[in-house]
Structures are given as C-alpha cells and as structure tokens.
Design goal:
The chain contains 21 helices and nine strands. The chain is mainly alpha-helical. Strands 4-6-7 form a three-stranded antiparallel sheet. Strands 1-2 form a two-stranded parallel ribbon. The longest helix is centred in the middle third of the chain and has 31 residues. It starts with a helix and ends with a helix.
Length: 525
C-alpha cells in the first residue's frame, strides 16, 4: 500500500509526517481533532525493516524472549512453541480488548492511534512494515475503533484502549467509519480497500504497550487550556471593568517584583484589554474611596498566570513523551532486545492531575467574580442579579448556580488519580499509574472550565452594558458585540437563559471570544 498517496487523500489538509522526529502538540491536535492525514517518513520505514530482522532472528532462539516466545504478564514463564506464536499474538489482542462503559470520543481514539503509530515508526518495537502501513491506512481512512471508558490502568500503558484499536487492525471488533457510522471492523476495512493484518511474533504486544491514550488526551488538554487561559484574562478584564475595579494593580513594575513568568503575561493581557476604558476612567477620581479590590479581581494574574506556568510544565513533559519510544521489550539502536519499565504512565499521570487542579482553581476564581456582579452589596450600583425588574425578574441568579455546580464538580475531579494503585496480573504488575483515569477526568475539567468562563463572560457583558452611557474599553466592547450579535448577553426582562449560556460556551470553545478581543488588541499571549 502506498502510504504517501493514502495520506494525501484528504483534501485541504497537509499530511503530518511521522518518523522524522517527535510530533508536536499542534500536530497531534491537527490529526486527532481536524482529521489531518499522516505520512510515514521513508527513513522510518527503513529502520522498521532493519529492526524487524532482529525479531525474526529471535523467533527460533532456544532462549525465551518476552513477547516473542513467552506468555505475557504473570504468564511470562511459559515458553510458546513456534507453531502457536501467531495465535499467541491474536489471543493477546482479543483478551486485552476488554474495555467497558461509554465510547471514548473520536478525537481521543485518533490521538491514541497516531501516537502508537509514532512509536512504531521509530523502529524500536520490531513491528513489520506492512503492519505499520496498514495501521496508517486505517487512520487515514477515518476509521476509528470503538474504545471504551474503562479498561486502562496506565501501566503497561493503555492496554485495553490500544487493544481495541489493534483488534480492528485484525479485522475484528467494532469501529466507526469516517461518517461516524458504527459497524464491524471487517466491513469498514473492506469498504476502504484495506486488508486486515495477521499478526506475527511480538506484533500484538508492540501494538498495545504504550502511554498513547493518556498522552493524546494530555496534548488535547494543553492545546485547549492555552486558549481558555486567554479567555480567562478576557473575562477578568471584563469583570474588573464592569465591577468598577482598578487596573492599576496590573502594572508591569508591580508584577516584576514577583517574576513568575505566567503572572506577567496575564497582567499584561488584562492591561491591554482594559486600555482606553471609559468605565474605568469614570471612577478614577478622589470621590472613589476604595483602596483595594477583592482578591478575585486583584489577584487574578497570579492564579491564571500560575496556571499558564503549569501548562507550560505539562507541555515540557508531553514533549519528552512525544519523543519517546514506549514498548516492552524494546529493540535498542544497537540491536539488543531488552525488557524495561518505560510503559509506566507516571510522568504523564502526574501532570494530568496537576492540570485538573489548576483548571479547578481558575474556574473557582471566575465563579467568585460572577457572584460579585449579582450581589447589590458588592457590585457598585448595578441592580440585584443584573435583573431588569428585580423580584419580578431573577436575572443571572441561576446562571451562577450553574457555575457553582460545575466548580464543585471540578474540585472533586481535582483529587489526583495518580496516587491510587490497584495491583493486577497476579501481583506481577503491582504498581500502576492510573494515568488514563487522570486524563479522563481532566477532559471533564477542561469542558467545565469552558462553561464557567462562558457564564462569567456572559454576565460581565450584561454588567458592562448596564453601565451605559459609560463606554467600555474597545477590546471588551468587541467581545460584548460578538455576544449580542449571537443573541446572548443583552440586558432586559428574563428570557430562557440556557440557550444563551450554550451560545456563550460555543463562542468560547470555537475561539470567537478570543478573536473578538484580539481584533482590537492584536495577539494575546
């Protein structure tokens, strides 16, 4: 099969080349979320062919070699005769494709497949070229194996999720095709003109022994959190402005006194967003007796900035993992086949848990700012709950309840999964990372943060409009205009609020809120 021509079959998207070096986070997102095709570098195929010969050389060796001529896990002491070794690989995949629960999202499955292909393309796994190219063809055809929520302990990698993908490569199990239709894998492969693979020595193990699921979800989360933290700065600027807060505390020289890099970035964003605000200038007078704003306004750059720094740390860990060849045993560059523990997901699990903590804290501060808008004792002259006719109308009262419910759940999701470990495989695998679980809860946290920020932006937009005839900053005015153009965030009598919240969520997630601000400010960091 011509992998290069197969990879270029998706119109409008340039193929991502796998095998020339580590993938980037953005490349993972392009393939996983936007269906960019992939192409294998010829150099990687040459290395795959070379190391496959090493595995072939071990097949007839009288000395047992794990995954080639032995069982797996606690059954590794059994020597498998030559005539049963293909059955050994099939049995491994079938038995390990034991997931349960709801289907995992398509973008996660595609990331999982891409990252396993990336490791296979290093030549460190001993897989055959034809098995690798078939896997690439399956991904490029838009075939996404059905993977389930539960089944991975994050050590020996994401075994069950990867096994469901390997099962589809064998023409077994269920998949969704490029249109999202669920069907038997054999049918989807046939429709795409792809012949199923008959696995040979070590190939089953090579297909399932990696941290690819948790790493894929980490890459997607990093990408999303970077955008959401800019939105958090936009929301903060709108809230500070609408609550008659001061932007003096965001001065660069003040933040230079504490040289945390993310903090400086966040403060600069907020200063830029509030520039030329008529609302702010209206209370820059001696008549204003307030000395300091509440922490949720004044300390926002510290929290959001620290979240930025944590995301940057997570990105460094992801980069190291993207440069890794995770398998056991592994074929070293000098031709040795060695057992190792690199499949343990601890490095990825730890940062996944860390990101859930910072997402919850950014959301918690956002909810506090929203609540200040609704309390007439703290909102400096705005109507209670921003209601049109308080008492008859409830305004945004229950929107804050929705925020509070999400934040409460995010705090529960911030409890780390990586501190847990349940021994498996008859105590052979007696310590596991639970990194897959860390990744699954982080995805819920990222979704929650987008919703909490959307409610803050929606509420702040309403509050800013209620300050008329005072004029907001051009950047925040642009955000308000984007919301109102979508029939969200206008003051007035009560109306069905849920659709407005979902509209705001959509504008946060698709980047419209950020773009509206940046149309005035230029790129925000």
């Amino acid at each position: 099969m011509d992998v290069m021509s197969s990879a270029s079959s998706t119109p409008g998207l340039e193929p991502v080349t796998v095998g020339l070096g580590p993938l980037t986070i953005d490349e993972v997102v392009q393939v996983a979320r936007h269906d960019a095709p992939i192409a294998l570098a010829p150099e990687s195929l040459a290395e795959v062919r070379r190391t496959r010969e090493v595995i072939r050389g071990l097949a007839d060796d009288t000395e047992p070699h794990y995954g080639v001529s032995t069982g797996f896990g606690a059954l590794a002491t059994r020597h498998i005769p030559t005539e049963m070794r293909r059955q050994l690989q099939r049995s491994l995949v079938r038995s390990h494709a034991a997931g349960s629960g709801p289907e995992v999202e398509r973008e996660v499955v595609r990331a999982l497949m891409l990252l396993r292909i990336s490791t296979l393309a290093t030549g460190r796994t001993g897989i055959r070229e034809e098995t690798l190219t078939t896997y690439v063809a399956m991904l490029n055809a838009g075939i996404a194996p059905v993977v389930h929520e539960y089944g991975s302990l994050g050590c020996s990698g994401d075994l069950a999720p990867l096994s469901h993908c390997a099962l589809a490569l064998m023409g077994e199990g269920e998949v969704r095709d490029a249109n999202g239709d669920r069907m038997p894998a054999a049918q989807a492969l046939a429709d795409a003109g792809i012949a199923p693979v008959e696995l040979q020595e070590k190939e089953g193990l090579a297909l399932i022994n990696g941290t690819d699921g948790m790493l894929g979800m980490l890459c997607l989360a990093i990408h999303d959190l970077r955008d959401l933290l800019v939105v958090a700065d936009v929301a903060t600027a709108m809230s500070v402005e609408g609550l008659f807060g001061s932007d003096d505390v965001f001065a660069a020289d003040l933040h230079a006194l504490r040289p945390q890099p993310g903090q400086a970035v966040s403060a600069e964003n907020i200063r830029t967003l509030m520039a030329h605000s008529g609302i702010r200038e209206s209370h820059r007078t001696e008549a204003c007796t307030r000395v300091q704003d509440a922490y949720s306004l004044r300390c926002a750059p510290i929290v959001t900035g620290s979240a930025r720094d944590t995301v940057d740390h997570a990105a460094r860990v992801a980069g190291w993992e993207l440069a890794s060849a995770v398998d056991n045993p592994v074929v070293t560059p000098d031709g040795r086949v060695e057992s190792n523990g690199n499949f343990h997901g601890a490095p990825v699990a730890y940062v996944l848990d860390f990101l859930a903590i910072v997402a919850a804290d950014v959301a918690s501060m956002s909810e506090r700012r929203t609540d200040r808008f609704l309390d007439k004792a703290r909102n400096h002259g705005l109507p209670p709950f921003l209601a049109d006719d308080p008492g008859v109308d409830s305004g945004h009262m229950i929107a804050q309840y929705t925020q509070a419910a999400i934040v409460s759940e995010m705090k529960r999701l911030a409890a780390p999964a990586s501190v847990d470990s349940i021994p498996s495989s008859a105590m052979q695998e007696d310590h596991v990372s639970m990194g897959w679980s860390s990744a699954r809860k982080l995805r819920r946290s990222v979704d929650g943060l987008s919703r909490v920020l959307a409610v803050e932006v929606l509420t702040a937009a309403r509050g800013i409009q209620l300050r008329a005839p005072l004029e907001p900053a051009p950047a925040t005015a642009s955000v308000v205009a984007t919301l109102t153009a979508s029939d969200a965030g206008r003051p007035g009598p009560d109306r069905w609020l849920a659709p407005e919240i979902e509209t705001a969520v959509g504008l946060v997630v698709d980047g419209s809120i950020r773009r509206a601000a940046e149309a005035v400010t230029g790129p925000l960091a």
